[in-house]
Task: inverse folding
């Protein structure tokens, strides 16, 4: 309950954990004043993620069939002079208005899988957006650096989803 109150008060929550073989666990959460439908649209607008999310350089839907989506992305990771371009292909499964699960099938990571979870606020028209992932780059990057970069980047990604979904919600309200 304490976590929900912090989210409702406008905090963006980030937590990191260290696992075997230098895998980093990343969790994050934010409260978005928009219905799950608007949040869903921001998460699943795959071809436009490079226009709405920081550090995403390119994002392209490759294939969609039998409930499975293949997405190709290019992003920037790192800090200052240690910034690196990463490429990867993800297999994505959607559970409409509830979950977007992903796992790398090829690319620049040993381990890259996780999920986005949407949770409707029971008393309001808002949505809690949660992110959980496990990450280990294929290239050399000490776990402390990977965790630092995640702590720096994830709040911006969560905030971008919030801004985009809330803008869509505001536009919808103006139309009615």
Result:
């Amino acid at each position: 309950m304490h976590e929900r109150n912090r989210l409702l008060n406008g905090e963006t929550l980030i937590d990191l954990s260290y696992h075997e073989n230098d895998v980093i666990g990343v969790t994050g959460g934010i409260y978005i004043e928009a219905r799950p439908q608007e949040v869903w649209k921001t998460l699943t607008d795959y071809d436009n993620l490079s226009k709405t999310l920081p550090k995403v350089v390119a994002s392209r839907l490759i294939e969609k069939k039998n409930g499975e989506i293949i997405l190709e992305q290019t992003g920037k990771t790192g800090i200052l002079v240690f910034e690196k371009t990463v490429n990867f292909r993800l297999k994505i499964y959607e559970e409409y208005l509830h979950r977007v699960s992903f796992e790398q099938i090829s690319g620049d990571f040993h381990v890259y899988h996780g999920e986005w979870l949407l949770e409707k606020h029971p008393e309001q028209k808002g949505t809690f957006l949660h992110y959980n992932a496990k990450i280990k780059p294929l290239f050399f990057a000490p776990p402390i650096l990977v965790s630092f970069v995640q702590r720096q980047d994830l709040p911006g990604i969560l905030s971008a989803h919030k801004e985009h979904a809330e803008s869509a919600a505001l536009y919808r309200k103006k139309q009615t």
User: Anything to note?
Assistant: The CA atoms of residues 60 and 76 lie 16 Å apart.
